[in-house]
Amino acid sequence: MTFYKNHKEKLELLKSGKLSLTENVKFFLKNIGDQKDLNAFNFVFNEEAIQSADSVEQKIKNNSAGKLAGMVIAIKDVLAYKDHPLTCSSNILKNFTSLYTATAVQKLIDEDAIIIGKTNCDEFAMGSSNENSAFGNVLNPVDKTRVPGGSSGGSAVAVAANLCDVSFGTDTGGSIRQPAAFCGIFGLKPTYGRVSRFGLTAFASSFDSIGPFSKNVEDTALVMEVISGKDLNDSTSIEKIIPNFSSSLSKDKKLKIGIPKEYFADGLDEEIKTAILNIVDELKLEGYEVKEVSLPKTEYTIATYYILTTAEASSNLARFDGARYGFRANDYKNLKEMYLNSRTQGFGTEVKRRIMLGTYVLSSGYYDAYYRKAQKVRRLIKEDFDNAFKQVDLLITPTTPTVAFKIGEKSDDPLQMYLSDIYTTSANLAGIPGMSIPIGKNSENLPIGLQILSQQFEEEKIFQLAKHIQDEISS
Ligand code: GLN
């Protein structure tokens, strides 16, 4: 039923009447129902989606439909959508309803996309496997004994299992790119500030970004044209010209590519390494200039990331205290106990671990040793990238050190879990964009992702190389 390759083709089919949008939405809804065991959705908006399909279909007939007319989109359940539940996959927000709509989501709706539901994720987007959700695990559709990645696991699965066209995830340290790699699809983390964070429940405010999962570069580029831009409701969003990403996709500019040697060192799965380097070899044969570069501070990225993001999280999550939002414990004798019991009972283990870590690194006496030092290292990590991008346009790296791991394999070992973010956290520390693109499968038939990184606000270059690789692989 989704015999279209990308949104452009879908829109042509809709316009010519060869595809009924209502039927298309019903197809996705049926798929969601048939594949309930994947647990990709926290909430599905059945009737609403069908109603929207109806009205968008009318608009298409009248030639008044927007750019994303009929694109069926699922959004991660950390994003606000007015009058719809917003739980962050946490018990503390189980019964919470949004009072407004996130800017990025509103922009989709304004262009006539159809929001089909809200996807499962790690609680407050903290995790790499979707095993930290109050709504339960999400299964990887490629192999149901494996994790889909996290924290945007449900969003990745919704696209990979054909439960929608595109989905929104959020990426604080890899939560779009890593699940995209594990599920064999495309996932983009835009430049920090490119997309408004208004309506995104804050985890680590100076790291968080919203971005799309999709099945091709074209749809990623199209969605980015729509959701990018300055927003007065988010002072960290940045006024920048939004390139016409779609029309520049095929410009083959033979961009200069850097291979950061630290990303191919110990700990990287051999099959992933070979697959990435094979692509690099092909690019060389086609005339791309490729050179080795160094990001010497790479070994500090995980430590820096987990100090700074937990610090920000401990402060951001202070607002969930039982007084203002969601869950309140009913066994308390005074105000302090009300806070204590609500937070103790409402938050899951990983969230509590991070609040405690973050509170510790910010506490007087440890602030200088941890938080301040990590801020300085963050700056040095950014400088590594600035130096690399003086020499090359783009960097190619693996997205993840391993393919999708087994459910339960790392859930008792937070350090091992944190190490699965080794190649993705650096982009958030430096505020640069990164995209994971699927480049094939390993000997066990599990997807492998290749990550492309660029300097801030150079998504256009990422798309051009991603499009080139996508077309090479599919030809
Ligand atoms: N896996 C990382 C973490 O647990 C990244 C999370 C994210 O990007 N939201 O923090």
Written overview of the protein:
- The protein has a single domain (1-475), classed as Amidase signature (AS) enzymes (Alpha-Beta Complex), CATH 3.90.1300.
- Helix content is 39%, strand content 13%.
- It is built from 15 helices and eleven strands.
- It has helices at 7-16, 21-34, 46-61, 103-110, 153-160, 177-183, 217-227, 270-285, 301-316, 335-346, 349-362, 367-391, 414-419, 425-430, 459-474, and strands at 41-44, 72-76, 114-119, 166-171, 186-189, 209-214, 257-260, 290-293, 394-398, 434-441, 447-454.
- It has an eleven-stranded mixed beta sheet, with helices on both faces.
- Strand 7, helix 8 (270-285) and strand 8 (290-293) form a beta-alpha-beta unit.
- Bound molecules: glutamine.
- Glutamine binds next to strand 4.
Properties at a glance:
475 residues, Amidase signature (AS) enzymes, eleven-stranded mixed sheet, 11 strands, 39% helix
Could you name the CATH class?
A: Alpha Beta
Bound small molecules, which ones? glutamine
CATH fold name: Amidase signature (AS) enzymes
* Succession of helices and strands: HHEHEHEHEHEEHEHEHHHHEHHEEH
Count of all domains: 1
Structural class: alpha/beta
Beta strands, count: 11
Assign the CATH architecture.
Alpha-Beta Complex
Strand content: 5-15%
Shape: globular
Distance between the termini: 23 Å
